[in-house]
Write a structure and sequence with these properties.
Blueprint lengths: L4 E5 L7 H22 L1 H8 L2 H10 L8 H13 L4 H4 L2 E6 L1 H4 L1 H11 L4 H21 E2 L3 E9 L5 E9 L4 E8 L24 E2 L6 H12 L1 H5 L7 E2 L2 E3 L17 E3 L13 H16 L5 H5 L6 H15 L27 H17 L4 H10 L9
Antiparallel strand pairs: 1-6, 2-4, 3-7, 4-5, 5-6, 8-9, 9-10
Length: about 400
Amino acid sequence: MKRGVATFTLDYGKCPPWLFQRMVKLARIITVAVVERFGPDEFLERMSDPVWFQSFGSLLAFDWNASGLTTTTMGALKEALFGLETDLGIFVAGGKGKTSKKTPDQILAWGRRINLPEQKSRRYAYLSKLTAKVDSALIQDGFQLYHHNFLFTKQGGWAVIQQGMNTEVGRARRYHWYSKHLKDLTIEPHSAIQSEVTIPKVLNLSAKKSLPNREGTVELVKHKKSLFYEIRRIKKHGDQLTLLDLSNEDFSDHPVNHQRFDQSSLNRLKDSGVPEMFTKQLEDSVRNLVEKSVDNFEEVLMTPKVGPKTIRALTLISEVVFGSKPSYDDPIRYTYAFGGKDGVPYPINKKTYDETIEIIEKALKKSSLGHDEKEKLLRRNEKLFTKSS
């Protein structure tokens, strides 16, 4: 099963209530059927496959090529599982916009509700933050994350569905994670990536090709004096220090080209002409790195206040000092049943949609899951067929 990234056009429309209600009901039926037949981990694995996820969202009748498929499908799924989470063994945290920022808190709240060991709950919350940082700071492809869902089980399985937008190219990109088979959370965690758009010159520190550069970054942070005070040897501009002058071979233009560090003291950054907001952010990230003991790249990445700009600056310094160039390659590498929200490829047929839900319900009630599982399904999920939302 392939997992990775899919890229779609930005969708500014809204899902009409009559469609969302049907999406919730059909999503509930499909999820219960998959979980009862194959188990919760199989459902997480299918959700982490961009092709299966795309088919799932399209089956629910949302636009197959629009960014809204991700947010609406996950919203419908979260609503569909409401009240069934404990029975099915699948828990969903997070969502779109401000809700995405609440994901760790929602994970911890679920942990308390289902008596999950505190260590496991905190691990899940940490993984939520880590996956977001990897797809925003290690893979700097110009897509700003605005949607994040963390799905998990009590047994230890987890998956992440998150999406970023790039308004310059008018596209959104979806990132899929799944816990199974992951050996390193920061090295090529997406085993396969789909995309209709390739972004030139993406700083991809999750690539194996970037490992030497990452090792150099860790060494720089370990030897903080050399990094922050003696690095002025690289290049001087009067009483200021420019980290690196980039050539057009890597970027036609890049924000780090305009970022300078005061060579004498971090406290004098405000006098260097750097914007106030950037200066405060830089001071916080550098101070946290100086005060923290790190042993590996993941610890550098997860240092508080360290984001894409700091990671990018450290990477460039590492390239100059150690000659280890990171990867600048973009890490990129379905089906309608009822129509699409915007009438593509044809308008949604409400009657067929409702009849299909009714047929599936009847089939599940009769024998769709086999002799041994039929009674269990009816007994454990009676509310599946009575909840109308």
